[in-house]
Amino acid sequence: MCGRFAFFQEIEPLIDDLDAVDLADPHLRTRWNVAPTAPIYVVTESLAKDDDREPGAPGEVLRALRVARWGLLPPFAEDLAFGARTFNARRESLGSKPSFRGSLSRYRAIIPISGYYEWKQEAGSKRKQPFFISDPSGEPLYLAGLVSWWKGPGGHEGPAASGDGAWLLSATIITREASGTLADIHDRTPLMLPRDAVDAYLDPAMDDRGEVEQWLQDDARVRDGEDLELRPVDAAVGNTRSEGPELIEETQRLF
């Protein structure tokens, strides 16, 4: 699964690498302990609208860095609380889950992160050791995700809301069964894409739900994570109120 991550990338190099325009809230700060329901960065690709919020003529494909609320809210969600249980989406059941299948064909996204946390349960112990998992070079990880514009009661506020407050952008991170070194930590891992697979995943021309499901099932397109660094970190990261760069510093293992 992926229930906690860090984001401390510089925005300009990120949007340059992804060839995206920046439509995100400039006040969204670097964070070392992002939890579900928090605002997160997402990268989407869609046909640009002819309004004041999005540059580009109608019909032009626009790739943009935006802010979404972590926890997907499908159109039928009755309230924000729904998103507390949809922050992850299992790859194996995307097409059969009503919460996610509606976003597969049109509302895909990349969630850029600096690294994520996972907890390892050791046999014979009730305590868990947290690990920070990241690219050793410091490059961002690109996670496959889905987004949904939720109307709800309207009158939304915050960085994930539309300019008129009528809609709220929400997101989920797709996960898969872990393998190799990552499976030693946890049985699930976020579905990470290499940079050369990002363009195909975001391409709005891939608009058939079944095609998208098949695309995501192909592990040849997925970053297996064997090159990632797994660093034991302090248990303080388990508290959602904990913040700061010290959370990703290596510490002695609990076991």
Automatic annotation (TrEMBL):
SUPFAM superfamilies: BB1717-like
Keyword Lyase belongs to the record: yes
Gene Ontology process terms (BP): protein-DNA covalent cross-linking repair; proteolysis
Annotated EC: 3.4.-.-
MF GO annotations: lyase activity; peptidase activity; single-stranded DNA binding
Pfam families: SRAP (PF02586)
Assigned keywords, A-Z: Covalent protein-DNA linkage, DNA damage, DNA-binding, Hydrolase, Lyase, Protease
Class in the EC hierarchy, top level: hydrolase
Superkingdom of the source species: Bacteria
The family this protein is said to belong to: Belongs to the SOS response-associated peptidase family.
Record protein name field: Abasic site processing protein
